Fold these 4 entries.
Entry 1:
Amino acid sequence: MQDDSNSIRVWDRFVRVFHWSLVSCVLVNYFLVDDGETLHQWIGYAASALVVMRIVWGFIGSRYARFADFFPTPARLRRHVQAIRAGRADTHPGHNPLGALMMLALMALVLALAVTGFMQTLDAFWGEEWLQELHEVIASALILLATLHAAAAIVMGRIERTNLVAAMITGVKRRG
């Protein structure tokens, strides 16, 4: 649905609620809640459930939410990087190929955290230091990539003259 010639409705309500809910889960679990607390575990389960729901939505959701619209194939990635290197605009209504790659990496890290976190509750892995350390490394990698993702959204928004943060709130990308 076009709102006018300089705007396009891209992110549906599910994608926006998913995004900000996952951001909240990650930030609260990393910065506010102590590891091992019951609340930490439940927030982790909620985050992993959100990712699973987003994966399903990637197949049945609205046009720009579907993986088929933005999946970062090698050809799409190559064209996108070549355009950036050449200084050409390579705009996409939804995720650009590098943004899609980042989104998939972030979701994979959340699921890896869920697996390593759950494993720590099992008798077979109880108190295993290597597993706790792996969980912490994955969490730190998630925060690092999420920070890079946020910075890239700001930079790409300036390059494309689109407020990508506002678009993730309103669902509408406005060029201007």
Entry 2:
Amino acid sequence: MTHIDELAALGTSTWLDDLSRDRITSGNLAEVIEAKSVVGVTTNPAIFAAAMSKGTAYDAQIAELKAAGAAVDEAVYAMSIDDVRDACDVFLPIYERTGGVDGRVSIEVDPRISEDRDATIAQARELWNKVDRPNVMIKIPATPGSLPAITDALAEGISVNVTLIFSVARYREVIAAHREGIRRAAEKGLDVSQIHSVASFFVSRLDVEVDRRLEEIGTPEALALRGKAGVANAQRAYAVFQEIGAKDLPAGAHPQRPLWASTGVKNPDYSPTLYVTELAGPDTVNTMPEPTIDAVLEHGGLHGDTLTGAEPAAHEIFEQLVAVGIDMEDVFAVLEREGVEKFVSAWNDLLDSMESQLR
């Protein structure tokens, strides 16, 4: 039994935060599933930008798309959809074995339309239909403009990975959007047991921003709080999930599991497994870059369920952060804005790279 298996026994599913055509065609993805107990995959514009800008795995398809006169956006999504579809096929046995809970592969809507409800739901619908696999999840950001699109997608029976969540206040809005979407799906007569969703909380990015501000303050009290905000914030979110995550859902519906994202440690002074060992518990997902998975396999460090009952101590940490001068509302606003901007930047880089290849 590996440490990833131990994590699964605590209730946390391990998903890989990476995908490329090389991983699929070389058999590496299947090997990672077998050897490292990975049960799902998440992608984002930055991941596809890295995959498509190096190597030769996409050359043949790029040549076909060039000959067909494909627009750059069309080409990028054609290749992304093919990769996600093929990855879904690799994960299908896990999807079937877990009743749809795991075996999931996520693909994200264009981050440039994150404030446009109509455009977001239209693209979510298009991606869902084009991938055409029961275990795909469509990633939609938890921005104010996209929250209604999350409800719309779920109401149509589309499984959704809600991404870019930073604050507990926004998370409550995500839970409400999920509940309303599932309610509407049930009213339409859809089988709500087939609709799954996760709510992706970004962890390490919070520590990066808060630590920077703590170091600017520079007092001993402030410096002692470095590396604590990300875990505490996720633990507070988990308490909300336990309180209302399954509340008022139609019969047969699944609660929207919290997913811990951005779990690769950015500060080398922190344990490489910090955002895994301190965020282990029932009904959760942790999507990790492969180096973090390897660190867990090597070092372990798990010490039971670190989510259930953790809210009082997490709340105290937030009170201390405020007491030393951290404006958490401003932190969350900055991170949400920068989160979208970073994905837009990665997307634009990918489009620029693809345009030059199509030329």
Entry 3:
Amino acid sequence: MSDLLRPWLPADAPIVLAAAAEPMMDRQFTSPIDSLAAAQEWIELLADRRTEDSAYSFAVLHEGVPVGNVAVSSVERRHLTGWVSYWMREEARGKGLATRACRAVSEFAFAELGLFRLELAHRLDNPASCRVALGAGFQTEGVERARLLYDGVRYDTETHSRLATD
């Protein structure tokens, strides 16, 4: 797709496994990634979702090496909407890669998938994720109270959106 994004490859499983082992990264995966086999299954799941036209995930590259993930999921054809998400490995944070990747996946969703509205949300206690959203052209829409539950604690989230016409 570019020098910034490409689909995940089976050979990326060790990178996915390492990413999942970083603090709080387990929340980024729907099931535990605690082995190379689990990482490979996750990559296969992403390929299946692409085939089903329900989600498009990309490895975010830095100097040709995957350092994060960006995706448009919950692709809904009736209303032409999708949900954007992203994560970066610790060593890649603070370099603007997440913002660039979020911008790029948004352009992909509008141009290639024909979507009109993209949404994303982040915990209120994650200002870095808010900077990514705003830097990628997403406008703030509001706060969802007690939206997420992690380890018995509820967290508010801030929702953002970007339209193809923005």
Entry 4:
Amino acid sequence: MMVDLKTLFGGGHPPLVGIDISTSSVRLVELSDAGKEGVRLERCATEALPRGAVTDGNIENMDQVVDAVRRVVKKSGTRARHVALGMPPAAVITKKIILPAGMSEEQLEVQVESEASQYIPFALDEVSLDFDVIGPVGNSPDDIEVMLAAARREKVEDRVAIGEASGLKASVMDIESYAARAALDRIVAQLPEGGAGQVIALFQIGAQVTHISVMLDGQTIYEREQPFGGNSLTQDIVRSFGLSYEEAEARKRSGELPENYAADILAPFLESAALEVTRAIQFFFTSTPYTKVDQIYLAGGCALIPGLLDIIASRSKISSTVLSPFKGMQLAAGVREQQLRGDAPAYLVACGLALRRFG
């Protein structure tokens, strides 16, 4: 059945907040239209999630997640009740299909459903399905290209239920990697000549997974996930210093750790992170026709780990930057710049979700 959440591509109604539910935290961003000045960041807030509440994109403990969403809404002070939520890329099947041009919306729906049954490995009645018309096919004016997206209904319903239990209405359901790209597109547009012809690699280093996307001229040309993230560093701190997981996580952020931490624990982690990045880039070269990457952006909760940017830049020999999705935005009076400096890269997905207000 077709779901009209404007599910995986939908258009939101203002005001809309973006809420990113990751493995380790819930993050909220609210943006507004600042007219000629572009976009204003009205609010952002984050709340940590208990370990195990969300695993591999699955909501394992609904109550804990709802509790964190309620807290982040309260902390942010937002009055908005419409929310854009994200689905992990692994939970969504996307496929570009070619259909004849000139069909009505109803005919398109019927056609998309019959096409979908070929690509989706489970029964259509278990699936939330949506589609987006990309546009005419370049070399064939009688055809259009359509993006089909499907997710297991229970995974969509879990997120809708979290919204409802938190007093919010899920108006838009997006794919986290698409939201990240929307936020990145804003930054790339600020590069000389709008980044035209630049091959840009985005590494979102989360708690458990690193998501890699490579873009050229607004198109994603490569995507993949690697099982590597900041949790392994936290676990090493737990083992070495006998701390609880929560305490290790807090001290990892504040840097209040014994003297031998930098050499014995942080340095090997940075080495393996640099190796993951250089390997991923080699893999991109061997599995695509491309032979260069012009710019690496680092995002996600781990992007600001001290020393990470330097080691990646020196090992990859590629210009590397930690990505702030708020670059070039106006800041509302209540937004603390200091907080943004310390945390901005982790807000990439939430910021992309919040941008759906203008889509």
